[in-house]
Fold these 2 entries.
Entry 1:
Amino acid sequence: MKDTQQYEGKWEKRWHPLRDEWIVYAAHRNTRPWSFEKKPARKNTAPEYDENCYLCPGNLRVHGDRNPDYKDIFIFDNDHPVVGLHSPTISPQQREFGGGLYRKEKAHGIARVVCYDPRHNVTLSEVSTAQVAKVFLAWKLQMIEFSKMEGIRYTLIFENKGEVVGVSNPHPHCQIYSTDFIFTLIQKEIEQAAWYRKEYNKNIFEQIIVNELEFEKRIIAENSTSIAFIPFFARYAYEVMVMPKRRHATLITMSETELYDLAQAFQEVQRRYDVAFDMSFPYVMTIHQAPIDGKEYPDYHLYISILPPYRQPGLIKYLAGPEIGGGNFMADTIPEEKAQELRSVDLSDFQEYQSPSKE
Ligand SMILES: [Zn+2]
């Protein structure tokens, strides 16, 4: 029998407490960790304004609406909404059939687009931290608006960034889906939080923060009220959770200082990604918040989930048999190694984007 002790800490299963599922880590199969060379963050070469971009100020959108000549953040209802207030109604006899198994309902809700900045070529990594904080404040205001809206139970704020996650338009923006249902993962997290409360009489999210602070080596960014880390149970190689340290069920109750801190930690993670990979790093970002259905969620603690598809430069993590077919993640990396890579990035000469001077 081969001696496999050399693979200790690289080849094991870890349990994901928020999803109640196992992840298999097989980092020993990876040839060796790649090392970063110190490079300046990628230079931005795209123009600030693109006449073919449907998000740039003053441009026409698909159904003929013209964007205003906006100077800051711009929010509008999606022209191709996935959920809408005017989606087709479903007759009562169509709602349930097939022995109670086949059900339909109206695709009710509101879909919005949030442009972070009028400039076509900037990212949240490159703008000022104050600008990122403004975006966070805009999200909070959206949450307040949706929480007062009849028939809305959940609001999902998310950003798909980069061509590898299917977004061809680089204009910095995210989307908001407000729905009459609660997203499955959030529902699962609420159940897990309730289970942990019952079993250990503690808050599951707070315990994760305590654990990560204690271990310390997976922390990517931290300030007085926020923390960002690759969790012990990360599924994606560079997956990061960004959290306010104090519990907030949604952005609605966060103070301006806390929002700024959360924005700062979030941005620092972006910068570490961008410098490490020498590119505008793609990801799927979602803000996990409690439902806004009028009920109390005393054990829910909001966090930003960043899921980048890359597992190393030039290599995408493709979901295949185990993930798609079986529902469990197989990772070729181990969170501690990836955290070490991001922690070692030197941000001292990171430069914010400066508009070319208009003379
Ligand atoms: Zn644009």
Entry 2:
Amino acid sequence: MKKYRKKQQRLAIGLLVSALVLVMSLIGIFAVKMVEKSQKNGSGKSTESTSSRTVSTDSGQKDSSVVSKVTSASSSEAVSSAVSIPTTSTTSSAPAEPTTAPVEPTTAPAEPTTAPAEPTNTPAVATKIVCIDPGHELTQITDLEPIAPGSSEMKQGVTSGTEGATSGKTEYQVNLEVSQLLRDILKERGYEVVMTRETNDVTLSNVQRAQLATAANADIFVRIHCNGLENTEINGVLCYGPTEGNPYLTREAIDGSRRLCQLLKDNQCAVTGQKALDNLYEDNMTGINWATMPVAIVEMGFMTNPQEDLYMASPEGQQAIATGLANGIDAYFAVG
Ligand SMILES: [Zn+2]
């Protein structure tokens, strides 16, 4: 009985062992096939090497020659397939490409931000253009030029102007200072202002100054000067303009000029309290005859009169004169 039992036990153990070996070899084959699958999917070398190791250790037990043959064959297949699989090359070279591409579209979206600003500065009424001509300049121009288009009468290009006997200032300097104040006031009031000069060191004849006003398409041409006489007692404000029958200007330009002369003088005197003198209308002034729009020469006062000279040289006097002239220009356009 004992022998038989022992035989039975051995048989059972043998069957168990062989069953175990079978199961294990099946597991081994399954594992190898899984490795192959994972390699074909390109899932890396690390999983491949670890799985083949577990297969060989599992199968390295008692009389597992069949198992080891299977595993070695399948593992070599796995290795060869792993070598021949070029999936790593496609995956490793592929990611390099798109790095340069996404840089491009970053510059495009900046453009449309400047567009919507435009329609805000379109005024209902056209802006008036005032050309201011500060009289004279650092050096006089002795070359002669015709006093009017087509005229044979000639005059010096630009004279040297007068001088402040008390202030010591030159006329061209005072003219420029008041002109620049007038420019600033007019710009503040919404006018477009064109200056024939912004410095004293220029070479501009009276014809050229009038041509600048025409080129600027100016609505009016305001010329700023100071007066001078031997008699130091005389003081006051006056303007030069064309006569009623000026042969060079249009009817509109003549009428506008005479109205402008009156308004500039009256408004300057209203602010400064200076004496208003009679305007002078003549047709021998180059800068008037060459104009193509209403034009006036403002004689702001006499530099030969000590009080008026100091007043025109002072910042307070200049500011008052410029304000009065700006009021005159406002009045001119308010009616016209
Ligand atoms: Zn002058």
